[in-house]
Design goal:
- The chain is an all-alpha fold.
- It has one domain.
- It is 88% helix and 0% strand.
- The chain contains 3 helices and no strands.
- It has helices at residues 4-30, 37-81, 83-102.
- It is elongated, with a radius of gyration of 24 Å.
- 0% of the residues are buried.
């Protein structure tokens, strides 16, 4: 199973990648009126790479959402099946935090 910290880092990666795509699109639009065969070739390759990257990030985001839903459902099921165990765990954690705060 995936760790929560992995999920947050993946969400941050998706967010950063979307920002990068936005910046590249802005750059391509800004250089649209520039001439030259070499620049036109580079623009065409960049646009193709950008389309591919958008598709991959969309797929990754959908997979991340699906995995998050699976983990949330499993957690919900576990909580409903073991309410006393989790209540005891929460009480124990509260006791430890209370003791640590009381020591100061």
């Amino acid at each position: 199973m995936e760790k929560i910290s992995d999920r947050f880092s993946k969400e941050q990666l998706v967010s950063d990648f979307k920002l990068l795509i936005s910046d590249v699109e802005e750059l391509l639009n800004a250089t649209a009126n520039q001439g030259g065969d070499k620049l036109a070739e580079i623009r065409a390759r960049t646009e193709a790479s950008l389309r591919l990257a958008k598709d991959e990030i969309t797929d990754s985001q959908a997979m991340l959402i699906a995995k998050t839903k699976v983990v949330a459902k499993a957690t919900d099921r576990y909580v409903h099946e073991n309410p006393w165990r989790l209540s005891g765990l929460a009480a124990g954690a509260g006791l430890v935090v209370g003791l640590l705060i009381g020591r100061r």
